[in-house]
Design brief:
This protein is mainly alpha-helical. Helix 5 runs antiparallel to helix 6 (154-170), helix 6 packs antiparallel against helix 7 and helix 9 (219-231) packs across helix 10. The chain has one domain (2-354). The protein has a 3-stranded antiparallel beta sheet with strand order 1-2-3, with helices on one face. The chain has helices at residues 2-34, 40-60, 71-84, 110-126, 134-149, 154-170, 175-194, 197-207, 219-231, 256-288, 293-317, 335-354, and strands at residues 91-94, 97-102, 107-108.
């Protein structure tokens, strides 16, 4: 299975380097306009990609099974960091959200860390067979998803919630419990949308979307649709995007795919989706071939949060789902997300490398 792991690493490296190129295409104008350096975002991203590659390599050499006793401490530390973001002077507030911790030399986003620490804890806990665990799971679920939603960061909360539910389902739960969880999840999403005005606005903009009359949509969605629609079959050509000139909001993070789709069109978009699909398939294959339940649940949890993020990001750009503010893995600009995504790949490489060595298969 190590050959599959090597292929996964190569595909991930290709995807991240492609992301750097896409980032340059989408950010050069705004970088010059706001910072005076067209390569500002690219230089930072290359640094994070390099750090991510090193982190993935280190984790690939570390037996994932040794992470089992570290699952609870990692989750507790993440929980503390999720509370720290609300402390003035330490937590960094941007655009009305408390999602970051300012360490002066680096800015950390705890919700990104939660994606892997909660997945690891659930995999460790649920790999043991025990009864009457639904109540404990729901408490854990509400605490951590609630902390992320309070920042507020509904997109990351959806990613964490979906990943948690899927890991719980694959651990061998009863269908009756899944019906209860599904009802709670739907009720929670409705409540989060209903009680925050900006979420209601986003939902109504999505609900009232009319391809023949863009005046009913929000400015963000309108510009994204113009960008994607302008791409056509083959795109307007690399470097020829019009929407990147400060028209599309968040063109280096949440909406970077729209700029790429404008320049490369349907064919280029299909190529990018193909590379992502191969990456996720290889991760899924490694997880299924794991020799123990912990490795299987941990691996599938990782693939799930990468898959859900990809779906929410690209889906929002083509009006399949409302705008959620979720970055595109390995493509969007951001240090915390890039490092966590590479850490996730490192865990999958470790599962491919060590699964089956000295451990009997048990599920």
């Amino acid at each position: 299975m190590q050959k599959v792991g090597i292929l996964l690493f190569i595909i991930t490296l290709l995807l991240s380097l492609l992301g750097v190129f896409i980032l340059y295409e989408s950010s050069s104008y705004t970088a010059i306009l706001n910072i005076g350096d067209r390569y500002h975002f690219v230089k930072n991203q290359l640094m994070w990609v390099g750090g991510g590659v090193i982190l993935a390599f280190i984790l690939s050499r570390f037996d994932y099974r040794k992470a089992y006793p570290l699952a609870l401490p990692a989750l507790v530390i993440t929980g503390i960091l999720l509370i720290v973001v609300f402390i003035p002077g330490i937590g960094l507030e941007l655009k009305g959200s408390n999602r970051w911790i300012d360490l002066k030399f680096i800015v950390v986003q705890p919700s990104e860390l939660l994606k892997i620490s909660l997945t690891m804890y659930l995999a460790a806990w649920l790999s043991r067979k025990e009864s009457n665990r639904l109540g404990a799971f729901l408490i854990l679920f509400f605490v951590f998803v609630g902390l992320v939603a309070m920042e507020p960061d509904l997109g990351s909360a959806l990613v964490v919630a979906t990943t948690s539910v899927i890991v719980y389902f694959l651990s061998g739960t009863k269908m009756k419990e899944m019906v209860i969880i599904a009802a709670v999840l739907i009720a929670g999403i409705i409540a989060l949308i209903k009680f925050e005005p900006y979420r209601v606005e986003r939902f109504m903009a999505f609900r009232n979307f009319d391809v023949h009359d863009l005046s009913t949509t929000s400015y963000h969605m309108r510009q994204v649709l113009i960008a994607v629609g302008s791409g056509g079959l083959t795109g307007v050509g690399l470097g020829n995007s019009v929407q990147k000139y400060a028209y599309v909001p968040e063109n280096t993070t949440d909406s970077i795919f729209a700029i790429y789709a404008e320049e490369t069109g349907f064919i280029g978009s299909l190529f990018l989706l193909g590379v992502i699909a191969i990456q996720l398939y290889l991760g899924f294959l490694i997880s299924l071939r794991s020799s123990d339940a912990f490795g299987m649940l941990f691996g599938i949890g990782i693939v799930t949060f990468l898959c859900v993020q990809t779906f929410l990001n690209i889906g929002s750009q083509v009006v399949v789902v409302p705008l959620t503010g979720v970055p595109l893995p390995f493509i969007s600009y951001g240090g915390s997300a890039m490092m966590i995504n590479f850490a996730a790949i490192g865990v999958l490489l470790s599962i491919a490398r060590f699964s089956g060595k000295g451990v009997k298969k048990s599920r």
